[in-house]
Amino acid sequence: MSLRMFKRQPPKLLAQFLVSLLWGIVPLSWVYVILYVGVRMAHERRTGVLLRMLLHGTMPREVLLRPWLANFLRKRFAFFWASLEVCFSIYYRHLVRRIQGRRRTSSPNSHTRIIRALGMSVVDGLDDDSLLANPRDTQKFPKLKEALARDDPRAIAFRKEMGGWFLGIRPEDITRLDVLNWLAWSIFDKYYDEVVLFDSPKHEMQLFLLDVLHTFEQRRGLRFPDRAVLSPIEEKRRRTMMLTLDPVDVHTRPLLLYILIFGLNRAVHAVLNMYGMRRMRMHGITYLLYMPPGWSVEAACKGEALRPVMFLHGLGLGLSEYVLPLFTMLRPNGVPASYPIVVPLQPWISYEFFSPRFLRPWQHEEAANVVRSILELHQFDKCKVHVLSHSMGTIVHTWFLRTWSSLIARSVFVDPVCFQLWEPHICYRFLYKPTESFIEFVLRYFVARELGNANLLMRYFDWTANVLVCDDIPEHHDPKHVRVYLAGADTVLNAWRVQHLLKRSGMQDVIHYDANLHHGELIMAPGHRVKEMLDMLHAL
C-alpha cells in the first residue's frame, strides 16, 4: 500500500484519530443494536409484538414520551446495518481464531533452499572466500576455517544484524536456546523442543542445528552463553521473532470497509475492461489479460513485435491501488499498448474478503504451475515474457525465476522484499516494530494487521522459498536484462542495505536508487517511473 509522502509527515496522532473513526464503527454498531433491542424488550415481553417493533421500528408508548430517544432508536436502516456489522464482527473474530493454528510452510524438498538461504546469511558481508572451509560447495552449509575475532568489524556487524531477531535484549545476551529455537523455526518451522521430540534416531535435525549454531558463533566472534543474567524489565521484554509460530495479530475493521474496497476494485476493473483488459480464470485463479489487435506470438519470437509484460502486484487494496501503473501499461505513449499484459490477481492480499481464496493463498508450487499454464494457454511461453513486480509481488517473481527462468526475458523489481530475508529488518519493520510515524501507523492498521495479509505473512510465509539469491537471476549483472528500483526512505525494507548487497553481488549497474522516495512512490505516486521501466523492458 502506498501513501504519498512529503518530507514532513502528518503527525501519528492524526492517523490514530482517522483509524479510530473507522475502527469505531464496530463497537458503535454493537451499542446501537443493544439499545435498539434492549429498550423494546424492557417494555414488551410478547415475542410477536416485539418482533414487529424490531422490524417496523415502532416504539413502546413509554419511550415515545422521550422524543430524542424515540427518534434515535427508530431508524430501521441503521439497525439493519448495525446488525450486519455485529454479525460480521463475530464471524471476523471466528476467522481470526481459526487462522491461529499452525501450518506447514516448508516443503519436503526444501533442504537445498535452506542451505543456500542460511548460507547467504553467513557469507553476506564476509567479502573473503578464503575464510571459508568449503567456499565452492553450495550443497553444504558454509563453514569457517576459524572464528572471527570479537572486535572484527565483520563480526560486530553480524552480531548486530542477527541480534535484530531477538527483541528486548543485547546481542551478547542471546543464549544458545534462543538461537536453537530461532533456527528450529527458520529451518523446520518448529520449536526446538519439538525438533528434539520428533527427530530421527540418529538425531540428524539436532546435529544440523548445532552445526549451524557453531558456525554462527564463529561468524559473530563470540560464543552464545547457556544462560543470560537479565533485569526483570529485560526478561519481560525479551522476545524472539518467529513469524509463523507467533500469534497472528489482526485488528478489527468494519464490513463497510470491505464492501467499499470491493466496489472500488470492481469499478476500476470495469474501466480497465473498456480499455481491452479482460478478466479470466485458470485453475481457480483470476487474472487480467490485455491482447492488442494484430499481435502474434510468431512476430514476437522474430523480434517484430514486443514481448508480453506480466505485472505482479503487492499487498494493499488490489486493483484500485495500482490504477496509475496499470493505465500507464495500457497507454504507455497515450495510445493503446502494442504488447500483451498479464496480471495475476491475488485476493488474499487485496482486501477481497468475499473471494473463496481469501484465506487460502497460493504457495510457490501452485503459483508457478498456474502461471505457467496461463502462459502456455496464450502461447506466451514460446516468445518469453517480461516481468515487472512490486513489493510482495517480487516474492512471486522469485518463485518464477527459480522454477522456469527460461521463460522470463527481462525482469524489473520495484521495492523488492525478496532480497536479504535472512536479515530481520523487513519482518521487524512491518510486523513487530512499534509504530512511530503517520505512514507506519497507516501501514500497520490497513495492511499488516488486515486478516488476509496477516494470514499470508504469519502462517504461509516460507522464507527459504521466498528469498532470492542474486545468482538465481539470469544475467543479473546486465542492466539490459535486470533492473532493481529502491526507495531510500522506504519504511518497509532497508533499501540502503539491499543496495549494498546487490553491489557486492556485482549488480551495481542495475540499481536505481532514489534516496527521497518512500515505499510505493516509484510505481504508484503521480511521479512514478513505470514508463521508464517499460522502456527498459522493451528496449532493443
TrEMBL record:
The keyword Transmembrane applies. It comes from the Eukaryota. Signal peptide: none annotated. Keywords: Membrane, Transmembrane, Transmembrane helix. The chain crosses the membrane at residues 13-37, 77-95, 255-275. It catalyses: a monoacylglycerol + H2O = glycerol + a fatty acid + H(+); a diacylglycerol + H2O = a monoacylglycerol + a fatty acid + H(+). PANTHER family: AB HYDROLASE-1 DOMAIN-CONTAINING PROTEIN, UNNAMED PRODUCT. This is AB hydrolase-1 domain-containing protein. It comes from Malassezia globosa (strain ATCC MYA-4612 / CBS 7966) (Dandruff-associated fungus).
